[in-house]
Amino acid sequence: MTVCCINKKGESDVTAVGHPLYGIKIKIIDDKCRVLNKDEIGEICIGGSTLMEGYFNDDNQNTFLTLCEEKYIKTGDIGYLDASGILHFIERRKHIFKINGVTIFPSEIEQTIRLASEKIENCIVSYIKNNVVVFIQSKETDIKNLKKIIINFCQLNLIKYAVPLEKNICVYEIFPKNDVGKIDIRTMKDNYCREIVSI
Questions:
Q1: Could you read off the pLDDT of 41-70 as tens digits, one per residue?
Q2: pTM for this entry
Q3: Residue 108 contacts by C-beta under 8 Å, 6 or more apart in sequence?
Q4: How far is CA 118 from CA 122, 132, 140, 157, 185, in A?
Q5: H-type alpha helices, 66-118
């Protein structure tokens, strides 16, 4: 696929990726591939004249589907179409998780925690060994107080299943980077797992 949506000047909603371009069709589906209504959250599917034929050396059986007698590609992205036809992106499907049957969006937790304190420079949320784990980048020296601020803010702004425990908030002065300069989330996850085992 090429570019599918654009935001018009003045549209600034944080989740909005814009109106579909001419010739592009977007459907939102549930886990049973049923087309959802406006403002209902599900997997984003894209169709239209720019749709590719398939992936090289892939049977594509789980990639494409037919909706309303037209071919669409399942993007693996979660989002919704609002009443005005604007597409909103929420999360990659592989990043979301469920606790007691409740769907949790890591990006929602991250956005909330970044607002908890101006001393939080960055935040990454992951689900490890049935725990909501939060990695914080901050130069704050009073780590215990920072964790308390985060938990209190999350309790006020998130559902209970999305609120991390104090032991699952890991604070770094600077996030480690990998060989290509990206945040090394794998190393942070490994460090967390080792710390949990040692407790």
A1: 999 999 988 787 777 766 666 788 888 888
A2: 0.69
A3: 90, 158, 162
A4: 10, 22, 10, 17, 22
A5: 106-114
